[in-house]
User: Fold these one by one.
Assistant:
Number 1:
Amino acid sequence: MINFFIDIRHFHILHKHWVEKHPDKLTEEEKKEVKFCWSWYYFTLKGDSIATCNLCNKSHRSKNTSNLRSHLKIMHKEAAHNLIPVRRWIRGHYTKLTESDKATCNHCNDHFDILIRHLFILHKHLVEAHPDKLTEEEKKEVKFFWIWDYFNIKNDANAICKICETTVRYTRAENLKRHLKNIHKILGPSPDSAINNESNLYNDANWDIQVITCNHCNDKYIIEVRHLHILHQHLVEAHPDKLTDEEKKEDKFFWCWDYFTLKGDSITCNLCYKSLKSRYISNLKKHLKIRHKIFGPSPDSTINNESNSYNHANWDISGNRLQRKLIKDVRKINRLM
C-alpha cells in the first residue's frame, strides 16, 4: 500500500504512479495526459501558453491555473456550483453548456439533455461511441448519480458512507442526499479536484475527499475534520496495544492540540505559555500563525510538554519573551567561560 501527500503542485506524481503501476486502469489518451488540475476540464490548450475556455471561447494565458480558476469563478459560476449531476469520472467526458440544461461530449461534440432520470444516456453514449475512453470497470457501472461518489452499496436497502462509514438505509437517492447535507454539509456535486492549497480545506465541504490508510491493518478512512474521532476510535478498538492508557482516553484530535494544554477552563500554549480564553479551533490556529508562524500540522512527533523544543527548524518565535531570556542566559554562560 502506497500513500501520497496531495499537493496541487505535484499532481503529476499521482499520474505517474498510475501509468507505471496500474496502466490497465487508464486509456491510452489518459496515459499521455500532461494537465492534471480540475480546471483543465473547462479549457483547451492551444500552443504552449494559451488556453481557450470551452464555455465562452475566450482565450487566457495558461502560465498557471490560478488565472483559469479566476475566470471560471467570475465568468462561469455554474462551473463550480452547477455541475452536471453525474459521477466525477463521467463528468470529465462532458462540458455543461452555459445557461442551459444541456451537455456536450468532449470527444465528439454530440449534445445531450441533462435529465436526472436519464443520466444513464451519458454513460451509454461513452460505452457505445467511445469505449476506449473508459476502463472495463467503468463500462459495467450502473450507478450514475453524483451521490454515489460518496457511497458504497452494501445491499439493496443499505449504503455505506465513504466519509463517516455510517450505514444509511435508502429507498431512493433523496435519503442519501439528506445524509450528505445534514451530516457532511455537502449540497451537490463537487469539482473534480484535489485540495486547492489557496483555499481552506476545513471550511470547504465540497472539495474532493482524502483517503488515508492505517499503518497497522491497511484499513482505509476518509479524512474529514469533523470526524477525526473515527481515526482514534479505530485505534482504540482495533489496535489498543498501540496506544497508552492516556491516549485511549484522549478527546482532542485536531493537530492544534499538539501545541496547547487544556486545564479546566484554561488553555495554555506550550510554546509561549500564554493563556487563551477561547476554545475555538480558529482562535488556536490564529495564535499559532501570528505568534509562532506555524501554519499546519508538523510532520514530526507531537510536542513534548515536559521540555522546550525551541530549536525546531519549523518554529519561528523571534521576539518571544522566553527566547530573549534563553539568549541572555547563553550570553551570560559565554562570559563566564
Number 2:
Amino acid sequence: MQDSMTLGPPGKQACGSVVNNTLKSPGYPNKYPNYMDCDFQVPIPQNMTMNISFIDFDLEDESSCGYDYLKIINDGGQVVSTYCGQKTGHHVLLSGDHVVMKFHSDGGDQSKGFLIYFTAVPHGKYNHNYN
C-alpha cells in the first residue's frame, strides 16, 4: 500500500501518513493536538475490499460527533460514517478505488486518538458489513 496524502495546518503538528498499512492520529498514543484537520487517502487494490480495523480508537465523545471525529468517505465522495467516542474493535468494509479518512479536532477536549489497520481482502470474503 502506498503512503496516503496528508494535509495539516501550517505551523502545526504534522498529520502523518499510512505506514505499513497503519494509520495513527497525530501524537498517538498521547493526546492529539487541538485544531487538526487531516485527510488521508488510502488506495484499495483492484478486485479487493478494504477491511478498516479500529485497533485503538478514543476521540472526544459527543452524540452527533460534532467536535472531534473521523469521517470515512468512499471513492464517490459519500460519507460512509462519522466516528467519535470509543470504537476500539470496530471494523468497516469498503470497496472501490480508494477510501478517504478525514480527522478533525476542535479546540476543546482531547483524547488518545486512534490506531487503525488496513487489510485488503478478496471481494466476498466477508458476507456482511461491520459498519
Number 3:
Amino acid sequence: MKGSDLYEKKKTERKYGIGIERIGSENGTERNESIESERKITKVSDWYEKERNERIRSVRKRTERKERIGSVRKRTEQKYRLGIERIGPENGTERKYRIARKTMIIFEKKADFFQAWQDCDSNNGHLASIQSAYEQGLVEQAMAKTANPKGVYLIGGTDLGRDGRWMWIGLNEVLSNYKYRNFYPGEPNNIGNQHCLSVGNWGGENRGKWDDTECFKQYDGYVCEFETIDQPNPAN
C-alpha cells in the first residue's frame, strides 16, 4: 500500500472510529468488522434505553395512581373525619376495614389543664384535638348542649416546654401553621403565662374560637375526645 493511501486510511479510521483487523489466509485479505459491531451495540443501547423509559413511565404511573388514591382518601377523612385502618390476616389479601368515628363530650366540672388531661385519660379518651372544621363543629355542638352557655372549656392544645410551638397533647402531634387552626384574631398572645388552649371565651359566631389560657387556672369544664370503632361486616 502506498504511503498516501495508508495515510488516508488512518485518517478515515480516526474520523469514523473504524478499527480494521487483518484476518483470513496468507494472501492478506482485509475485512472491516467494527461497523457491524457498532451497529449491534447501537441496537442494544437503543433497546435498553427504550426499556428503561418504559419502566420509568410504569413506575411514574403507579406512583401517580397511589397519590390520587391517597388524595381522595385524605379528602374523605377530612370531610367525615374517618380514621381508616387496614385489618385482617398478615398476608393482606383481605380488604377489610374498621372506621374510627370521633365524639366530643364536654364535662362540666371545674378543672385546670392537668386535671382535665388526667380525667379524660381515665375515661379512655383524651383532651380534644381539633384537626378539621368538621371536628370544630363537633366541639361547638357539644358546647351548645351544656347548661352554661357562657362557659369556658379546656381543649388539648399546649406549648408547655417550647414557647410558641403548639401541639395536641392527646396525639403528641405538632399544631403546625399549615394544619387546621381556629384561633381568635390576635391569639395566641401569651398574656400572663398562657400556655394551654380553651374555647368559649367569646360570644356569637366566635364562641368556638381558640384562646391561649393559663394552665393552672380552673375553668368551667373541658372537652374530652373519644373514638368509637365500627367493625367491618364479615360478609363484605
